[in-house]
Design a protein that fits this description.
The chain is α/β, with parallel strands linked by helices and 286 residues long. It has helices spanning 32-46, 67-75, 134-140, 179-198, 221-225, 252-256, 269-285; strands spanning 2-7, 53-56, 79-82, 90-93, 101-107, 113-119, 122-126, 209-211, 231-233, 240-242, 262-264. It is built from seven helices and eleven strands. Strand 1 (2-7), helix 1 and strand 2 (53-56) form a beta-alpha-beta unit. The structure holds iron/sulfur cluster (SF4) (2 copies).
């Protein structure tokens, strides 16, 4: 029996086939080394006579107490074969031999010699990929990372919050996590949501945009670019109007308005010019 790690994870451009997204999955799936070794130990506990070969590029049994799975697998006689990340193991049917499959791999632990291992079955420790949640992403304007998982505002300072106010994240929607990490993230998200609900009033970010009625021509450019659908057209005045509760102050509309009719609080031209002048003065003095 063979376990093959990193199937669909920690992939390399030019070595692995691209995923349907057109990219390879470069990230570690984080749970499969532990899961594979746990399964190997369970099999050995029930049927110690079964030979188990474990093909890996690195063993990453991170997490409290998880290293013991690795140690126990070694004690149980699991044979570890380390392959080069650019030279992946190959599995082929063997109609002539006694075993239906043969796994061929270079073994970096024995000076890179190539091994051919006949096995009855090959079990892939597969990577983790996110479901297609594009509808939800569009609806809530979620930020998505290069790996297609949802992106928190800051991994250390705001690890369970989206940039969209009032929307929190927990679990593997952010990336591969084990159950301990999922429950910790869920507890943190629930605390954040409870703290928000417990407030009598919610303070909004003051740096929102405003439309100057005297300059707006009603061209509606800003309506099309606002990612949070915070701008509507006033049917009476026939100009744009910003919903202050929805505006996040991203500034996209102010940059797009051809008439200069939108100003973002805290970022007026006078304020920007004053900042630049101060910076230049500091540079000249320093
Ligand atoms: S882009 Fe500017 S001018 Fe056009 S509707 Fe919006 S605020 Fe008015
Ligand atoms: S600042 Fe951003 S969120 Fe606010 S109205 Fe303009 S584009 Fe929309």
């Amino acid at each position: 029996m063979a376990f093959i790690h990193c199937a669909g994870a920690r992939q390399h451009e030019g070595v692995n086939m691209p995923q349907p997204t057109g990219r390879v999955n470069e990230y570690c799936a984080r749970t499969c080394c532990t899961a594979a070794l746990y399964a190997a130990n369970e099999i050995k506990a029930r049927q110690p006579e079964i030979m188990i070969y474990d093909f890996y590029q690195d063993i990453r049994t991170y997490g409290r107490g998880h290293e013991s799975y690795y140690e126990k697998a070694s004690e149980n006689g699991v044979v570890f074969i380390r392959f080069h990340p650019h030279r992946l193991p190959r599995v082929r049917h063997d109609t002539a031999g006694r075993s239906p499959l043969v796994v061929t791999s270079q073994d970096l632990l024995t000076n890179g010699i190539e091994l051919q291992v006949p096995v009855d079955c090959a079990i892939l420790a597969t990577g983790v990929v996110p479901h297609d949640i594009s509808e939800l992403v569009d609806m809530y304007k979620c930020a998505v990372g290069y790996d297609s998982f949802l992106l928190e505002v800051h991994p250390k300072l705001r690890p369970v919050e989206l940039a969209v106010s009032g929307v929190f994240l927990a679990g593997s929607c952010q990336g591969p996590m084990d159950i301990t990490e999922c429950t910790a993230a869920a507890a943190a998200a629930a605390s954040k949501a409870a703290a928000l609900i417990a407030q009598a009033q919610v303070e909004m970010d003051p740096f929102i945009s405003k439309v100057d009625d005297t300059l707006c021509t009603g061209c509606q450019t800003c309506l099309t670019v606002c990612p949070y659908e915070a701008i509507t057209r006033d049917p009476v005045k026939k100009i744009a109007t910003v919903n202050e509760a929805l505006c996040t102050g991203c500034g996209t509309c102010a940059a797009a308005c051809p008439s200069g009719a939108i100003r973002q609080a805290g970022f007026s031209e006078e304020q920007i010019h004053a900042e630049v002048a101060m910076l230049l003065a500091d540079t000249a003095a320093g």
